[in-house]
Design goal:
2 domains, hydrolase, alpha/beta, Rossmann fold
Length: 203
């Protein structure tokens, strides 16, 4: 039997909002084969993760443009049009957040999100006004699944890890949180999450 949950902690990308580099670059690259190559070799999720972890954007872009000079304009688009990689909310999860907030469940988030991109995106999404605190990897220069970001989050949120439910779509992040004593939900879809929240008496 799980212990009582005092607070719910969400991941952001692919739990609350869709995030897909292809959503931007499919507008800029007509050839499907070249698009696949570009996302596998130039602006990759692994490269983007360096920015999430706190690496300077201008340094990353300058280095990448030296490596791939024929893609300079596209690499610039990564830096200037990031919001276009966020096509919209994940179906159903915003409603769950609002329902939890309506029941006065403390809400928090831990997100791998580059600091300048978060500063640009956050004001556009009022859902995050419902959260007591959000730990952003780019601000802290620590990214999930590093244990340090979970330790920092528990200290900031003011609840013991075992009293918090952490929700994330990434298996490595879930494993890291579980190893540190957090209760966890590996996210796939809102309906499964809703059932889990109901079983815990949170909804």
């Amino acid at each position: 039997m799980s212990k009582a949950v005092e607070a719910v902690v969400f991941d952001v990308g692919r739990v609350l909002i869709h995030w897909d580099l292809r959503a931007l670059f499919a507008k800029l690259i007509d050839d499907p084969a070249r698009l696949d190559w570009f996302l596998s070799h130039v602006v990759t999720e692994a490269w983007h993760f360096e920015h999430d972890a706190g690496r300077d954007l201008s340094e990353m872009v300058a280095e990448r443009k030296l490596q791939f000079p024929d893609c300079a304009d596209l690499i610039d688009a990564y830096a200037t049009r990031f919001r276009e990689t966020i096509p919209g909310p994940v179906a159903g999860t915003h409603d769950l957040v609002r329902r939890l907030a309506g029941r006065a469940v403390p809400l928090f988030a831990i997100t791998n999100f580059a600091s300048p991109f978060w500063a640009e995106y956050r004001p556009t999404e009022p859902l995050f006004d419902l959260f007591g605190d959000i730990v952003v990897s780019g601000d802290e220069k620590i990214a999930k699944p590093a244990r340090e970001i979970f330790t920092l989050a528990a200290r900031r949120f003011g609840h013991r890890p075992e009293a918090m439910l952490f929700i994330d779509d990434n298996a490595a992040n879930i494993a890291a949180a579980r190893a540190l004593g957090w209760q966890v939900h590996h996210f796939f879809e809102a309906a499964e999450l809703e059932a889990d929240l109901q079983s815990r008496g949170l909804l």
